[in-house]
Amino acid sequence: MISPWDRWYSTSCCLCCHVRTGTIILGIWYMLINAVVLLILLSALNDPVQYRYHLTSSELGTDIDVMDDANICIATAISLLMILICGMATYGAYKQHAAWIIPFFCYQIFDFALNTLVAISVVVYPNTVQDYLQQLPGTFPYKEDIMSTNNMCLVFAVLLFIGCILSFKAYLIGCVWNCYRYVSGRGTTEVLVYVTTNDTTVLLPPYEEAIAIPPKDPPPQYMEA
Question: Which residues form the signal peptide (predicted)?
Answer without folding.
Answer: none
